Amino acid sequence: MNILCAGAAQGLVKALQGVFLELTGARVEGRFGAVGAMKEALLAGEPCDVMVVTAPMVAELQDERRLIVDSEAPLGRVRTGIAVRAGDPVPAISTPEALRDSLLAASAIYFPDAQRSTAGIHFASVLAKLGVANDVAARLRTFPNGATAMRELAAEPRRGAIGCTQITEIKYTPGIALAGPLPEAFELATVYTAAVSATARNPALAQRFVALLAGPTSRCLRAQGGFEIS
Length: 230
Fold this sequence. Notes:
The structure is a single chain. By secondary structure, this protein is an alpha/beta fold. 41% of the residues lie in helices and 24% in strands. The radius of gyration is 18 Å and the shape is elongated. Pfam families: SBP_bac_11 (PF13531). InterPro entries: ModA/WtpA. This is Substrate-binding domain-containing protein.
């Protein structure tokens, strides 16, 4: 079974692949990345049985009949946060002023694609609103998705580097620590949703994987990984 999945849910999907194999005998092959890239892959005809992206994008693709209507299930709400290398001092980020000072002091700033990823688009707007985009331009390090950005941050040799992406991607990356969510004035909370593709080879099996991702079996796993569940 093929899944196109936002990077924010990559850790969850990988944690449940083995469970689903035991339950059904079906292997899950995932492609992970920025939500815009996942949409492009679907529209280009890449094999897809289940898609996990933002709730608005799921609704849009259902309207276009590319995802099956009423097959969706929300995984939870994910906030965007600031990360540092494990063991580095945690920067002050609780107010816009503190975040601004910490960004100006950072040795490097890692974040995902500012054109196609949810967190990257938002963080680029935060830099602009804080008036620091030009000041930190030479220290920006962008990558196709948040998971890659966080792995690169973990490998950064210099102290004082920070990163920004969805909190789930921060929590699932070894060598990275969560400094905290963005200040309330810049908060971004995104609901991620799974749905069955209109091209699913086995829609019933795909629906079982959606139920596993969003159901009670994975509730604690989601909460531990940074999903906020009502």
